[in-house]
Amino acid sequence: MARTVVISGGGTGIGFAAAEVFAAGGDRVVLLGRREQVLAQAAGRLPGARHHAVDLSEPAQVRGAAESIEREYGAVDVLIHSAGGNGALEERGERPDPLDTVAHDWTVNFRLNVLTAVLLTEALRDHLATPGGRVLFLSSIAAYRGSGVVPYAASKAALHPYAFRLAEELGPRGVTVNAVAPGLVEETDFFGGVPYPEERLRSRIAETATGRIGHPGDIAQTLHWLASSAAGHITAQVIQVNGGAERGR
């Protein structure tokens, strides 16, 4: 039976890779994100996919998208939070006061990576399939090892306690809540289209036990499994998908 799968940030990278996997399995995919044209192009590549352009950090827009999804599909079987990313790519503007820059960097990362996920979850939590619903967050290896972009790492780590509490609250309904923490993944917009420095890339690969960096499909397949009936007794977990890099070498 086809499920309804809502994917934020589903127009590119890991979100789109997940959409491809779920659509290939016969599920109905709904893509959410800020960029209408990107979403429309992505949806056009997937059988039966729909999309809604929405700023998930704005409560009124999230409410509108959630109401539209409820009217059209009823229950949401799988909710995947892939929206977010590197706040350093957001426009800073002129900020002569260093503290203003600090405030901007921390605020924008939490808005992109935490607020978007929390608002969409809270808007749809009463419409999750019961039993059998799945909520899946995208964390990061940076939540464990830190990052050169400290506010980004902190924002990803902030998702963990929310996911754990949500798992406790939704568990009696038969809904599971988990997170996936990728390492370095190619073919995403995380670095804004700037090539990853070759020396740093070699260093990152050397940290893995598998001898390579991740592909979006690695993460997508993990999300697909966590959304399956085979993972029905797995909840309140953060699954590492980084080739062992979190352990270091």
TrEMBL record:
Q: Name one GO molecular function term.
A: oxidoreductase activity, acting on the CH-OH group of donors, NAD or NADP as acceptor
Q: Which GO terms describe its biological process?
A: fatty acid elongation
Question: Which Pfam families did the record assign?
Answer: adh_short_C2
Q: Where is the Ketoreductase domain?
A: 3-183
Q: What family does the entry list? A: Belongs to the short-chain dehydrogenases/reductases (SDR) family.
What PANTHER family has UniProt attached to this entry?
Answer: 3-OXOACYL-[ACYL-CARRIER-PROTEIN] REDUCTASE, CHLOROPLASTIC (PTHR42760:SF40), SHORT-CHAIN DEHYDROGENASES/REDUCTASES FAMILY MEMBER (PTHR42760)
**Name used for this protein in its record:** SDR family oxidoreductase
